[in-house]
Amino acid sequence: MTGATLSHLDVAVEAARAAARVAVDYWHRPLAVTVKGYRDVVTEADFAAQDAAVRVIQSRFPAAAILGEENLTPASAAETLWVIDPIDGTSNYSRHVPIYCVSVGVVQGGRPAAGAVCDPLRDHLFTAERGLGAKLNGASIHVSQVNDVGEAILGVDWGREPAVRARSLAWLGRLAAECRTVRAIGSAALAMCYLAAGWIDLYFNFSLKPWDGAATQLIIEEAGGRLTTPLGEAWDYTQPSVFASNGLLHSVFSPIAANA
Length: 260
What we know:
Layout: H1 8-27, E1 33-37, E2 40-43, H2 44-60, E3 65-68, E4 80-88, H3 90-94, E5 101-108, E6 111-119, E7 124-129, E8 134-136, E9 139-141, E10 153-156, H4 162-176, E11 181-184, H5 188-196, E12 202-205, H6 210-213, H7 216-222, E13 226-228, E14 242-245
Parallel strand pairs: 3-4, 10-11, 10-12
Antiparallel strand pairs: 1-2, 4-5, 5-6, 6-7, 7-8, 8-9, 12-14, 13-14
Helix pairs in contact: 1-2, 5-7
């Protein structure tokens, strides 16, 4: 079967599943963990999972432009860009906290067009195609209908830099007092999928990378959610700071405190 007979989503799913199988295989072994930056670790599984996803994509689209978290950048600009996070939640993964996933997004003309996020430990596959809705294991999903912030579950993930953490804590202090409870997921891609599925109602993160949002931006949009910058402007997967919500609660992210 060739790339011409498969949709981009088909290949994204195939690549995400291939990487997830590798991640699960390494999950049961002693892991070699190295430091790649401040509060930032990587394992041998990250590289092996990324290689598995790349092999799938290139087997279908040999000339594919691919951006991957583990030192993989496309040779030149392309109309279609594949964006891979081989293990999102590496800190969790490296300590055997069972919350991680693989994310594969397809961006066309600068806009996410298809995406797959695979959580292999729970057998969850979140997918979306532009204009065709978001799904979990093939069933349609939608953001929650919670419209009272006092009943909302807030998701948050931490940046590594002190200034980013200080900003996150300022926002958390403001919002945690209003919502029902808070969850730090440890995987941005999973947290954003949880919002799309209606399991949490609000989410913010000030340290995203393109591979965190290339698939999940579309999944949230197709599930009926809303994503903006802290200033209330339209957000896209290349920007580090996002406020995401079910839409009904988005006003709690007031731009007045954007620089808090």
